[in-house]
Amino acid sequence: MTQLNPPTPELVAKLTAIVGEAHAFTDASDQAPYLTEWREKYVGRTPLVLRPGSAAEISEILKLANEARVGVVPQGGNTGLVGGQIPFESGEEIVISTERLNRVRHVDAAGGYMLVEAGVTLADVQNAAEEAGALFPLSLASEGSCRIGGNLASNAGGVQVLAFGNTRDLTLGVEVVLADGRIFEGLRALKKDNTGYDLKHLFVGSEGTLGIITAAVLKLFPRPVETATAFVAVRDLDAMLELFRGARAVAGTNLTAFEFMSGWCLDIVTSHVPGLRRPLEGDAPWYVLLEISSGSADGAAEAMMEGALSEAFESGAISDAAIAASIDHAQQLWRLREDLSEAQKFEGGSIKHDISVPVAAIPEFVTRAGEVVEAVCAGARPVVFGHFGDGNVHYNVTQPAAMEKAAYLAQWEEMNDAVHALVADMDGSISAEHGIGRMKREALARFRSETELDMMRAVKAALDPNGILNPGKVL
Ligand code: FAD
Ligand code: ZN
């Protein structure tokens, strides 16, 4: 591995000249928003934050950084959950923010694609699609802040993966600045293209380690005409699986979301987030938020929902359901799920996991993980929720009520190791959607085979031989 250097004052001056002084931050107060992430787990340092305005400027920056062997950390909306977008504490890497690459260049609803720059927020991408009468289905609780380049770089998942796939499945083309400053102009809008290796996929999910994504061509879909949303009380996780299978059988790919949470999740989100009320009487051990969408205005979505639920009522799998009577009501139900990440903060320290197993193995995973957690830290409280239909559980573990937060968080590694060992035993993934970044680098090295790691290192060495792009992340 090449030795990297901190930028010299001369280099800082040259890089500043590329973007202009107004877009080069050296002051601590200007830099602060780029150096702390959402959970405040990582706080980095940097001599320079750059906000370039074009791919050409990024190309010039990388060319110089590569020649000088200076590390570069790409950053989009800074909502990543594994520390990938934050420079290390040593303060030797520069940060490149994409936030000024914020133009929606072209929306072609009839052709089913749109061309956007990397710094457009996901919410603005969704809105631009909607204005053209189309749907861009990627949807995450962070959509107001995260940027599409960051979504591609982390291959984000979210709540519509069940029907539309993750970001990779929504990407038709990319434009990427390579480590040496060359530009890969791959902004093609082709659905079918088997001309050699499909290079765009190298950059989707590469977490800023292989190139800086500057623009993307995204897939668009027809907007649903009717949507039925229900919040359902479920007997146990086997019953949830039964409900899932039944809903899939009735609705097929019209089942656009199947999100679950434990009873305690509903307690904390309704007690800590102002304005949220319990949608059902009584307590159930588990809840599901189901969404069924249809392209016709004939009541089909509602009919499918009723079909799925009535079967589950009859078998005793579910005990109660609130079906949204209006768009407002549906949004209220969605907030119970979306505000859950935020609500956990009020219960003290939380040790995070983002795992996946085959859907049918979720009940077994949750039972066994409960035992694992109790053995590591008696009284710790699992906050179990996530994208049930994708087999993706955000298995977060909140501290015992009476414990010191710092003492609890000191067990982060031990808890992760124990839960991840279970995941490995069940042939699951230790990072279903948040990536590896800095947080799970050691874990990746343990949970992927030497052959897989060798292939990853070979790709990295080929595209970034000096290792300047997001050094110390992923590999
Ligand atoms: P950043 O955080 O800025 O960066 C993420 C990574 O991508 C870093 O490694 C960075 O170096 C790299 N990167 C950023 N931009 C570029 C670029 N243009 N070129 C190359 N590399 C780049 N994630 C999910 O998958 N599903 C969820 O449901 C979900 N829910 C969330 C809910 C909340 C409340 C929060 C705070 C986060 C959630 N996330 C979720 C995580 C996060 O929002 C996603 O990973 C998102 O895709 C990150 O986008 P960003 O623009 O904020 O990227
Ligand atoms: Zn998620």
Structure characteristics:
alpha+beta; eight-stranded antiparallel sheet; 20% strand; 475 residues; binds zinc ion; binds flavin-adenine dinucleotide; five-stranded antiparallel sheet
List the helices and strands and how they pair.
Blueprint: H1 9-19, E1 24-25, H2 28-35, E2 49-50, H3 55-68, E3 72-75, E4 94-97, E5 104-108, E6 113-117, H4 122-131, E7 134-135, H5 148-153, H6 161-164, E8 171-177, E9 183-186, H7 200-203, E10 212-219, E11 221-222, E12 226-234, H8 237-251, E13 255-262, H9 263-272, E14 286-294, H10 300-315, E15 318-323, H11 327-338, H12 340-343, E16 350-351, E17 355-356, H13 362-376, E18 381-387, E19 392-398, H14 405-409, H15 412-425, H16 441-447, H17 450-463
Parallel strand pairs: 2-4, 3-4
Antiparallel strand pairs: 1-2, 5-6, 6-10, 7-11, 8-9, 8-10, 12-14, 12-15, 13-14, 13-18, 16-19, 17-19, 18-19
Task: Give the gist of this structure.
The chain has helices at residues 9-19, 28-35, 55-68, 122-131, 148-153, 161-164, 200-203, 237-251, 263-272, 300-315, 327-338, 340-343, 362-376, 405-409, 412-425, 441-447, 450-463, and strands spanning 24-25, 49-50, 72-75, 94-97, 104-108, 113-117, 134-135, 171-177, 183-186, 212-219, 221-222, 226-234, 255-262, 286-294, 318-323, 350-351, 355-356, 381-387, 392-398.
